[in-house]
Design brief:
Helix content is 95%, strand content 0%. By secondary structure, it is mainly α. The protein has a single domain, classed as Helix Hairpins (Orthogonal Bundle). The longest helix has 66 residues, at 2-67. The two termini are 14 Å apart. It comes from Paraburkholderia fungorum. This is Flagellar FliJ protein.
C-alpha cells in the first residue's frame, strides 16, 4: 500500500510543478494584457486631446471668419475644410474606445484565468502535502 501512496504523492508533486509553470505563464499573459490595456487607454487619451485641439482650432478660425472682412471667404473655406475633419476624429476616438474596451475585457479574462490556475496550483500542492503525510504516517505504522 505504501508504494501506491508514494506514487500518488509523486504524482501530486509533479502536477503541482506543472501547475506552477502554468501559473507563471498565466501571470505573464496577464501582464501583457494589462500593458495592452494601458496602451489602449493612452490612445484614447491622445484621441480625446486631438479632438479638443481640433475644437480649439475651430474656435480660432471662427474668430478670423468674423473679423477678417476682406479674407472672410477664404476663412470660411478653411472652416469647412476644418469641420470636414471632425467626423474622422470622432471615428478615431470611437475606434480607440472600442479597442480599449476589448483590451479591458481581455485583461479581465487573463486575470480570471490566472486566479483559476492559481487555485488549481494551490489545490495540487495541498493534495501533495496530504499524500506525503499519508506516506509518512504509513511509514511510521510499519516501523
Amino acid at each position: 500500500m505504501t508504494c501506491g501512496v508514494a506514487r500518488e504523492a509523486e504524482l501530486w508533486r509533479v502536477l503541482a510543478k506543472v501547475r506552477g509553470l502554468r501559473v507563471r505563464r498565466k501571470l505573464h499573459a496577464l501582464a501583457d494584457a494589462r500593458r495592452q490595456e494601458r496602451r489602449a487607454a493612452a490612445v484614447v487619451q491622445a484621441e480625446v486631446a486631438a479632438l479638443a485641439r481640433h475644437g480649439e482650432e475651430r474656435a480660432r478660425v471662427l474668430v478670423f471668419c468674423r473679423h477678417e472682412q476682406r479674407a472672410g471667404g477664404r476663412w470660411y473655406a478653411t472652416l469647412r475644410a476644418h469641420d470636414a475633419m471632425t467626423p474622422v476624429l470622432r471615428q478615431r476616438l470611437n475606434d480607440a474606445l472600442q479597442a480599449h474596451e476589448l483590451a479591458r475585457q481581455q485583461a479581465g479574462e487573463a486575470l480570471r484565468a490566472w486566479q483559476i490556475e492559481g487555485a488549481r496550483h494551490d489545490d495540487a500542492k495541498a493534495r501533495g502535502r496530504a499524500a506525503l503525510a499519508r506516506v509518512a504516517s504509513e511509514g511510521r505504522e510499519h516501523d
